[in-house]
Amino acid sequence: MSTSNNPAELDDERLIWAFTQMLRIREFEERVKRTFEEHPGVIRGHTHLADGAEASIVGALATLRENDQLMCTYRCHGYPLVLGTDPRAMMAEIYGRTGGLCGGYGGSMHLVDPERGFMGTSGIVGQGIPQATGVAYAAQIRKRDQVVLCFFGDGASKQGAFSESLNIASLWKLPVVYVMENNSYNVITRVEQEDANAAAGEPLAVKAKAFSMPGVTVDGGDPIAVYEAVWAAVARAREGHGPTLVESKLYRLSAHGNIIAPPGVPLHFPEHEAVEVFGAAEEYEAAKRGDPVPRFRARLVTDGKLDAERADAIAAQVRDEMQAAVRYGLDSPFPEPADAVNHVYA
Ligand SMILES: Cc1ncc(C[n+]2csc(CCOP(=O)(O)OP(=O)(O)O)c2C)c(N)n1
Ligand SMILES: [Mg+2]
After folding, report:
1. Beta-strand (E) ranges in 155-279?
2. Tens-digit pLDDT profile for residues 329-341
3. Which domains are present in the chain?
């Protein structure tokens, strides 16, 4: 996927590539969100958006080589887009159609594209952590020179599977980088909320200490900061020195996920929990003002690395690409009812 992976060699084209990927993620997810309003009933079940995490996703993935691998959570649309998965196949999957990445059997929360190193997702909080650790163990015993990125949320760091996985990864020096996306919320619990089951540790990266591995906290709204932190961790893993915990601090800009409404009421995204549950409209507005996508664009333009005209042209191209993904998804047929039991083993 990448050209050079050394932070010292992040040239202008690489930065523009990163900006383009951030826009692609945002635009793809905007289309997912709009589908609920423009095509009610087309998406069934739960969908979770990663707006606010684009810089973190792209910064982290820019460190990978062609044969590296990753696993993530149900907030999963961004990663395969960056790895090169066809957005048309992703949209068709989310719409449950035969043209989907998994033939329409998986839906939004179960995207997988192993050919590109995208080893899967899970709707179970924390499940991907031991799975990614296992993928790293396989890479180590097969001597494949692969590094595995493992993405999970602040909430997942409370799960037992987190401790078990980091423990064994540290002991066995597995080639895995744990990227905790601290997006400030765990459904309707704020990360710093003391009267709830929030995650302890300030910053959350201190959890790394218990397992004798490096733990760093970075501004997840800055793709270059994330890139540098993950690059160092990937280099360490590749050299056989074992795992690192990178805490990427974000703000989830959408509600946790869409609402599965009662019969007759279309599925939709509610207002953000900061506003709906806590009445903290100011917090939410401030987070939107710090939106990493326009922030990175402004930085590239100010630094003379991208002119506004080219930025607009990229945005137009990305809009067309994602509009085509929606069209492809809508035009793709539904699976035949008789195929419902395919891939079911008893
Ligand atoms: C084992 C398990 N417990 C509870 C849930 C319900 N649940 C779904 S998402 C979520 C919050 C997870 O928060 P975090 O790890 O911070 O990820 P985020 O959604 O913020 O990306 C919970 C509790 C679940 N899916 N799986
Ligand atoms: Mg969270």
Report:
1. 176-182, 185-186, 189-190, 215-219, 244-249
2. 999 999 999 998 9
3. 7-252+273-329 (3.40.50.970)
